[in-house]
Design brief:
Blueprint (H helix, E strand, L loop, with lengths): L50 H25 L1
Amino acid sequence: MDQRNPVPDPERTPGLRPSVGVPPGETPPAEDGLSETGPQETYNPTKGWSTGPTIIIWAFVVLFAAFCIAFAIAVL
């Protein structure tokens, strides 16, 4: 591998055979994943949005809709 060219050179790569590629013993095993790596989180389950922020968001939506309707009536 070169600083200017990040693609490895097949002529200088150790363990690489011309017709086969990399033998199975040369590659590390694949990862299983990270979904079950830590302890199970039971003390802080997700409960969704609380009531307060939901009411505030809907109030802004209703006010915006009322403004749009009033503006449309005023323009006509």
